[in-house]
Amino acid sequence: MKRTRSKLFFERAKDVIPGGVNSPVRACKAVNSYPVFFERGEGAYLIDADGNRYIDYVCSWGPLILGHAHPNVIAEVYFASKRGTSFGAPTWLEVEMAEIIRECIPSMEKVRLVNSGTEATMSALRLARAYTGRKKIIKFDGCYHGHADSLLVKAGSGLATFGIPASPGVPEELTAHTLSLPFNDEEAVKEAFEKHGSEIACVILEPVPANMGVVLPKEGFLSFLREITQRYGALLIFDEVITGFRLGLGGAQEKFGIKPDLTCLGKIIGGGLPVGAYGGRAEIMNLVAPEGPVYQAGTLSGNPIAVSAGLATIKELKKPGAYERLEALSKMLEEGLKEILKDLSLPYQVVRCASMLTLFFHDKPVTNFSEAQACDTNKFARFWQGMLERGVYLPPSQFEAWFVSLAHTEREIEETLRAVRETLREIR
Ligand code: KE4
């Protein structure tokens, strides 16, 4: 495939935008490539600046669970925009969004809308520290919660030392209170609480991580975290920016039957436009300004156009059969991948949770970040390039999730599997 215009646009972009992109992973460095510039999306497809068509499994990194340009989403965005773009004052739509979130995720007794997942997690951390009067937080290696300073800590700092900044510009004072532990490691969490229990404000995690690739929580791990945080008076924060409305209307907390104290949302609730949210027990949320003293604000929080896209998306997901359809298509993809690996005697791992999955180029199960890091990322890069040439657009990183949407059909899954088989043969 020729991608002349993408290359041209990228050269111009690099002259005026750092790295030529507005978010690092889009630069495709991890797959030794350059970004494809897209012109439009149609259902399960993306069309690039050179007119090439691709089956899309990035789905804007999760939000587009209905696929691109869903007519009902576009219509709601159109009608909302005709009424004006932003008022800096409440609209009924925000109330409807908060109510539908509470209806689907009852642990979110009160909800504050923001503009991104980063804002949601950053605000939830501030609230947890205010509510508990404590400073320390526990996160897990490989879980990504956006780019708030406290959360940009090097993986694997473990118990030995507290958070080491993962980025220049983050003062160690801000990561010194962050402990990053191996995911699925109950002993490490127990030890942290035995050592620092009275200082720990919260444990924040992706209940089903998707930022080290998709990794499943071990049996009992989530309930263990619920119990130990309760025991030590720390809050349990589920970052469901990806899993919220992805694993089901109630997200991971419904799937695993765990009630966190706070939940962060994003992506799908914006339907492709900028919406994030955080919420939880009313007694905690009532600390948020102007009800309480914990300050958090945003010019465009609850923006009516963005919320309209999110509401239209959730309304489609609430239709009978939506998640069953996603499950059937995703299962077909997973089973097809496993069959190809078996036929080609390749030892790679396929991990799926609902309509998100990862093909790990690793010969052993992946249950945490250090295991994920052992993947053959060069082989993944060649796989990604081969799939792109065959018209399939995968996330340009081994440490991300493939997303299936309601716009995908058996036809796209079959074409994808054909491309996988040919590419794996080619690069083996
Ligand atoms: P945003 O600030 O990008 O809206 O959300 C941050 C965030 C928070 N929590 C989780 C679990 C997330 O996955 C994210 C963002 N996800 C990444 C990719 N998995 C977004 C892609 C990007 O950074 O460009």
From TrEMBL:
GO terms for cellular component: cytoplasm. Keywords: Cytoplasm, Isomerase, Porphyrin biosynthesis, Pyridoxal phosphate. It is an enzyme of class 5 (isomerase). Its EC number is 5.4.3.8. The modification N6-(pyridoxal phosphate)lysine is found at K267. Pathway: Porphyrin-containing compound metabolism; protoporphyrin-IX biosynthesis; 5-aminolevulinate from L-glutamyl-tRNA(Glu): step 2/2. GO terms for biological process: protoporphyrinogen IX biosynthetic process. Coiled coil: none annotated. GO terms for molecular function: glutamate-1-semialdehyde 2,1-aminomutase activity; pyridoxal phosphate binding; transaminase activity. The keyword Isomerase applies. InterPro entries: 4pyrrol_synth_GluAld_NH2Trfase, Aminotrans_3, Aminotrans_3_PPA_site, PyrdxlP-dep_Trfase, PyrdxlP-dep_Trfase_major, PyrdxlP-dep_Trfase_small. Its cofactor is pyridoxal 5'-phosphate. The keyword Glycoprotein does not apply. Belongs to the class-III pyridoxal-phosphate-dependent aminotransferase family. HemL subfamily. This is Glutamate-1-semialdehyde 2,1-aminomutase. It comes from Caldimicrobium thiodismutans. The lineage of its organism: Bacteria, Pseudomonadati, Thermodesulfobacteriota, Thermodesulfobacteria, Thermodesulfobacteriales.
